[in-house]
Amino acid sequence: MSTIAKASLNAAQQQVLDQLGSTDRPVFDPALRAQLRHELDQAFEPMIPAIPKDEPLFVSKRSIGMVHSCEQLFVADKTEEFQWSVPIARGIVSHKAIELLVGYRGNPTPLELVESAIARLENDAYGPGDFLLGLDEGERAELVALANDRVTTFMETFPPLERNWRPVTESKVRAEFANGQIQLSGKIDLQLGYARGNEAGKVTIDLKTGRSHRTHIDDLRFYALIDTLKTGTPPRLLVSYYLEQGTPHTEAVTEDLLWTAARRTAEAIGRMVELQSEGVVPERTPSGACTFCPLRTSCEAGVAFLAERAQTA
């Protein structure tokens, strides 16, 4: 996979290269794409009448994760008005900076990439542009420092992105069903490699901060499902890359994995549709997500969970 000299890599970068650079390239059944779509079409068919024609159901890894973790959080998130903050903007800026790294000529520093990313995002009418332009000098400095830390960590622990790996950042994937009434979509942080016909070669990477969590695996499986529906050949490897640890957690893609992702997606969408109906009461399932839930001060189950966790911390 690489022409990089081993002497030019540190131990963390070499570990990533060793884990991601396997020459094992599984071959998938060319009929898999059609089979997955057929099964999903059948699963979605009874749901379609309950979806308003002028309000398509947009499904992301986030919405699926919320339905499977706490239905009340899913409902609350749909009605809560989104608000930008420095921590949220940090992720957008960091990803944009890494995106620029792929095509940047020369040897840019993390700070140069971050500043360039902010300058471009300030002109984005559909993103955080207004928020970024409204920051005072202290808030902007804080954002630059936070994003710089994340980009620096990536450049220190991930091997340099070679052009022959065909790196793609912020890659959008989408699959539509029932004439667009149900739309599965995602944005993949980083992809390396490519398929050769039905022979898998692509590596799908999600950049993460904080601790590892089970939902991170499910998020990547969802991406693999949509990518398979898009191209017909699945990625060969899924990677959660934890910046603070400088380590990749990997999972090889199999047909069983894709069928599991399809079933999980169909189950979540079925419940999303049900929750749109009057009289359906969402279940409340306390978890670590209670910390960020907009109902964290009014949900009795969530309040009790957070209080118990604080006592045992």
Q: How many domains, as an integer?
A: 2
Largest sheet: 6 strands, mixed
Order of helices and strands: HHEHHHHHHEEEHEEHH
Count every helix, treating DSSP H or I runs of 4 or more residues as helices: 11
Which ranges are low-confidence, i.e. pLDDT below 50, for 5 or more consecutive residues? none
Rounded to the nearest angstrom, the radius of gyration is: 21 Å
Mean pLDDT: 91
DSSP strand (E) fraction? 5-15%
What would you call the structural class?
Answer: alpha/beta
The backbone outline, from C-alpha atoms, is: globular
- What fraction, in percent, of the residue positions are helical? 40-55%
Overall strand count: 6
Distance, first to last CA: 44 Å
Topology:
Elements: H1 11-20, H2 32-44, E1 57-59, H3 61-69, H4 71-79, H5 86-103, H6 110-121, H7 129-133, H8 137-157, E2 168-177, E3 182-192, E4 203-208, H9 214-231, E5 237-242, E6 247-252, H10 255-275, H11 300-312
Parallel strand pairs: 1-3, 4-5
Antiparallel strand pairs: 2-3, 3-4, 5-6
List keywords for this structure.
313 residues, 2 domains, single chain, globular, 11 helices, alpha/beta
Q: In a few lines, what is going on in this structure?
A:
The chain has 11 helices and 6 strands. It has helices at residues 11-20, 32-44, 61-69, 71-79, 86-103, 110-121, 129-133, 137-157, 214-231, 255-275, 300-312, and strands spanning 57-59, 168-177, 182-192, 203-208, 237-242, 247-252.
Overall description:
This protein is of the alpha/beta class. It has two domains: 23-79 and 172-275, no CATH class; 86-157, no CATH class. Helices cover 48% and strands 13% of the residues. The protein contains eleven helices and six strands. Strands 1, 2, 3, 4, 5 and 6 form a six-stranded mixed β-sheet that branches. Helix 9 (214-231) links the parallel strand 4 (203-208) and strand 5 (237-242). Helix 2 (32-44) runs parallel beside helix 10 (255-275), helix 5 (86-103) packs across helix 8 (137-157) and helix 9 packs across helix 10. The protein is globular, with a radius of gyration of 21 Å. It starts with 10 loop residues before the first helix and ends with a helix. 33% of the residues are buried. The mean pLDDT is 91.
